[in-house]
Amino acid sequence: MTDNTTQQSPDIHPTVQSEWQAVLGSSTDRTWRALAVEPAPAATLRKGHNMPATGWKLALAASIVACIGLLVILQQQRLMIADLTLDKTLMQLQSPVPVIQLSALADLRQLPQDIPASRWPELMDFLQQAHDPNIQLATLELLITIGAVQTQADLPDLSDSPVAQQQFLRASFME
Amino acid sequence: MRRVCANERRALNQLYDALGPGIYGYLRRLGADQEDAADLLQQVFMNTWLHRHRFLGHQASAWVYRIARNCWYDYFRCHAARAAPAIEQHADSPEQTLVAEQLADRLQGALDKLPLATREIILLSRFSSMSLTEIAAVMNTTEANVKVRLHRGLMALKACVEERDLD
């Protein structure tokens, strides 16, 4: 059962041949030929798969540069969003409603990034101007947490606050 | 195949020359059209090269045919609704060509009616030059099961040829 026109499977395994012969008998050759198909294409790689080595290297380098560029853009976006969030939260401190101020102070404590030293004076001013002892205490805690107040000398002038409150804040700091 | 495993690209060409035509025929008769069968054939040898380290060192044809089978199943999932493409027959005269084409069409029709596993076994026996044991390895079944299915499949083809002779 050879097939010279299509050169497909010139060798048939004896175990298979005997099965074909046993079932198909004299029709074996005819059936075998009728199942033939056109010759297979030659072994060539398609375009795209056949890119030279330098091509792959260039493509790889371009991909790496693109990835780095994308990461830089993403990082810039992240920093911009963080700045906007900080601005918005510090603005909320200017609200006349103590609950909103306390909420903003809680948010500031939970910010994922550090509050930059350039924004500390805003918090110091807020501490000075606040009259609610709870808000003053929360602000002081925040200032200590972020490192803006490390010694008693760093505390802003609290002369506008009632004396009892000043003493309370100083005592809180000592603790 | 051992040379392919040793990263010899030239050996892959030799493997293609030895197994490519059979795998192409197997894919064509399973239902891939000419262009898709050529693409699948490339995919088979691409995968053979990429996964050469997984070859365990025996029954190389069975291993490559298993890759072909997996490629076919991936293709089949996407093109299940397609009708089997017509395959041209080449004979000496137009009359012979017509007769051969009629028989080929009938056989393809009979093949298409067989359960897929039986059809695969018939085609592997026709195109792969593998023994029944190797075909069983490709199909992940026993030699006895291959023998039974091959017998049933060939009986169906025989009935088809005889029916045509009566016509």
Structure commentary:
- The complex is a heterodimer of chains A (175) and B (167).
- Chain A has 175 residues and is mainly α.
- Chain A is 61% helix and 0% strand.
- Chain A has helices spanning 14-24, 28-34, 53-92, 98-109, 120-129, 133-146, 163-174.
- In chain A, α3 (53-92) runs antiparallel to α4, α4 runs parallel beside α6 and α5 (120-129) runs antiparallel to α6 (133-146).
- The N and C termini of chain A lie far apart (100 Å).
- Mean pLDDT of chain A is 80; it is low at 2-9.
- Chain B is mainly α.
- In chain B, α6 crosses α8.
- In chain B, 38% of the residues are buried.
- The mean pLDDT of chain B is 84.
- The chains are: A mainly alpha (175), B mainly alpha (167).
- The A-B interface holds A 5-13, 15-16, 19-20, 23-25, 27, 30-41, 43, 45-46, 49 and B 13, 16-17, 20-25, 28-29, 34, 37-39, 41-42, 45-46, 87-90, 100, 103-104, 107, 123, 125-135, 147, 150-151, 154-155, 157-158, 161-162.
Short description:
Helices cover 61% and strands 0% of the residues of chain A. Chain A is an all-alpha fold and 175 residues long. Chain B is built from eight helices and no strands.
- Estimate percent helicity of chain A: 55-70%
Low-confidence stretches of chain A: 2-9
Give the uncertain stretches of chain B in residue-range form: none
| Distance between the first and last residues' Cα of chain B | 48 Å
Derived from helix and strand composition plus strand pairing, the structural class of chain A reads mainly alpha
Shape of chain B: globular
